[in-house]
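Allow me, if you will, to draw on your knowledge of protein folds for a short while. I have a record of one protein: its chain in single-letter code and its fold written as discrete structure tokens. Could you please explain, in whatever detail you think fit, how the structure tokens follow from the sequence? The record follows directly beneath this note:
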Amino acid sequence: MIFIVSFLVVLMLVGAVVASVFRDLISAVIAAALVSLIASVLFLLLAAPDVAMAEASIGAALTTAIFIIAIRRTKRYEE
């Protein structure tokens, strides 16, 4: 169990670094959504299913959708 949690934490850190390195904004948003999705899995493993569902629905789904809609209405690449 501790190996799985440690692996997911390391995967979250890698995803956060990747999200900050990407120049393409859509790719950065998808990487940030992956970090949020891994956080919801961690909450589920730590016996907090209500927090996991909230993180998955709001953090991974709704926030990602709002960011993608905002990026599509503006420029996609940073200057």
